[in-house]
Each structure stands twice: as C-alpha cells, then as structure tokens.
Amino acid sequence: MKWIIGLGNPGNEYRSTRHNVGFMAIDRLAEKWGIDVSQSKCKALLGEGRVQGQKVVLIKPITYMNLSGESARAFQDFYKADLSDMLILYDDLDTAMGQIRLRYQGSAGGHNGIKSLIQHLGTQSFNRVRMGISRPPAGVDIAHYVLSSFRKEEAEALENMIQATCDAVSACLTDPFEKVMAKFNGNGMKG
After folding, report:
1. What are the tens digits of pLDDT across the range 107-119?
2. Domain ranges of the chain
3. Catalytic site includes residue 19
4. Helix, strand or coil for residue 106?
5. pLDDT in tens, 12-43
6. This prediction's pTM
7. Is 3.40.50.1470 the CATH classification of the domain at 2-188?
8. 40 alpha carbon, distance to own chain's centre
C-alpha cells in the first residue's frame, strides 16, 4: 500500500495559498485516479483506490500544517503502514517557483509541517516531493507569504509544478524512489 500525504491547511480561506500546494497535488491525483478523498479518519480526509495494480491511499491532514505529524502517525499506527511506502508532498521556500525536488531524508529546513512529521514519526528518513514556491522578496514576512495566494503571473508555473508532482508520484508507484529522483531532479525535471 502506497500512502501519499499532501500537506496544507483545511478551510476555504487557505485553499489557493502557497502553503497548500500539497493539498492541490492530492486533489489533482484524486481527480486523475478517480479517488474520492472525503473519508474522515486518522485526523485527515482519506481516499483509497487501486492505481497501476497497487492500493493507494491519498491523505489530507485536517490538523493544520503545524500538527501534520499527528495525522501521519495515526494513519501509520492504525494501518500498520510501512514508512518506506509513504510519500509527502509539500511547499518549499528553497526550491524555485514551479520546480520540484525529490528527497528521501533531511531536516525540516524550517518547515513546521515537516518538523511535526519528524517529531511524530521519529525519523528524518522518508520520501518527499518538495514543491517550489521560492522565497519572498526581502522584507516580506514568511508566514504572511506562505499564507498568500499565487499571483496571476505564477499560474503557469504552478500548473506545471502540480503536473510534474503528479507525474513523479505516478512514477513512484512502479519505480524505486532513487530512480524517480534521478528522473525528476536536475536536468530531467519538467516544468
């Protein structure tokens, strides 16, 4: 079973914000794969389906970003899910707008959702797709920036990034993570 967690904040006021690109990617995957992500369980909205012959669970924690680890831990404990089958999708200030970067371990890098996951899962070693939102201009508060909506001129880069994220997630269903990393990081990256 592959479990894919998109990080974000619940509620309409956050729907189109930079901090919610993980939710946006889950919504796109749900649409693409015909999975209804509406079951309330494990402090999250879940949807289960079969994709490319595998059971897949799409997960949107409803704990708010800073407590995302509570949901991941509840899911892991309830389903006895293997951490090597988990994939986290989230916004990243240190990746250029519209780009994605796959990693299999690392620190939180100041991201409170990742900090919560590390705390609750007890490891920094888990597969992740960092979705680039770039850093704000000098003098702009980071909290305000990540909770702001994308500008009109960023629409194409956002669309390309969500598509590249979905392509990478699809590849993870059949290929080892290292192979997917090699394809989507660096020169082979689309978007």
Report:
1. 999 999 999 999 9
2. 2-188
3. yes
4. coil
5. 999 999 999 999 999 999 999 999 999 999 99
6. 0.95
7. yes
8. 19
